[in-house]
Amino acid sequence: MPRLSVWMVRFSLIYLGIGMTIGGMMLWNKGIFISVDLWRLLPYHIELMLFGWVMQLVMGVAFWIVPRYTTPPRYGKTHRAWIAFAMFNIGLWLVLIQHTWLILVGRVLMLLAVVLFVVYLFPRLKPYGE
Fold first, then answer.
1. Distance from first CA to last CA of the chain, Å, rounded?
2. Whole-number Å distance between alpha carbons of 61 and 47
3. pTM for the predicted model, two decimal places
4. Among 4, 22, 48, 58, who pairs with 52 as Cys (CB 3.0-4.6 Å)?
5. CA 41 → CA 25, 45, 115, 125, distances in Å?
């Protein structure tokens, strides 16, 4: 597994653990009351599970599984993909701060990261058998 995929999967598993912990606390709060304020963690739970875990896991596996070049370097010039990884995580952290302007900036960073990642992967896509 390439290094970038390893880091994306690691980060996604960290986000999965944090998101599941928050979700578990909210679920526990339904059965055994802890605090009314615990429901304020719902946006963090959604962000961590949807974008932190799922989206980053998809990107990491896509980087690994999309056909590689036949000549070295097998994954091409990966600097765009690494920049996309950094931008995506910075954007996610900005969204988690939950300040109005930082949410907007974070979402834009995440969108640009996905676009940059797709631009990186697109030349590697080829029809079956080629």
1. 23
2. 20
3. 0.91
4. 48
5. 9, 6, 29, 39
15 to each of 9, 65, 87, 130, how far by Cα in Å?
10, 22, 16, 37
- Tens of pLDDT, residue by residue over 12-68, are 999 999 999 999 999 999 999 989 899 999 999 999 999 999 999 999 999 999 987
> 20: how many CB neighbours lie within 10 A of its CB?
15
Closest among 44, 43, 64, 52 to 11, alpha carbons compared: 52
**Least confident segment among 7-16, 53-62, 69-78:** 69-78
Residues 6 or more apart whose Cβ sits within 8 Å of residue 98: 43, 44
The token pair at 38 is 């615990």
